[in-house]
Amino acid sequence: MRRMNVGSRKLSAWLEREGVKMYVFAARVRVGPSTITRLLKGDRRPGLELAGRIFAETGGDVTQNDWIIPINEPSENAAA
Q1: What is the pLDDT along the chain (80 residues), one digit of tens a residue?
Q2: Which is deepest, 16, 21, 65, 66, by most CB within 10 Å?
């Protein structure tokens, strides 16, 4: 499993704080629940369109930029 990114952590916190179930949120942003599960685990990042829908649904609490991995972050494929 990959490390959670900022977007994953912020979305998880938002869902918990707002008391929104994953499957309800998934329907609101027009994806399947498995997509939200993979986003929360850090197994995938949303495309720009989905990131925009997440931004809108969270009232701006989870931004498109939250899903970007900074260049100075060590890659999980980098040699230790």
Answers
A1: 456 789 999 999 999 999 999 999 999 999 999 999 999 999 999 999 999 999 999 999 999 999 988 777 555 555 54
A2: 66
Q: What is the pLDDT of residue 80?
A: 46
CA distances from 21 to 13, 37, 64, 68, 78 (A): 12, 11, 21, 24, 36
The three state secondary structure string of the chain is CCCCCHHHHHHHHHHHHHCCCHHHHHHHCCCCHHHHHHHHHCCCCCCHHHHHHHHHHCCCCCCHHHHCCCCCCCCCCCCC
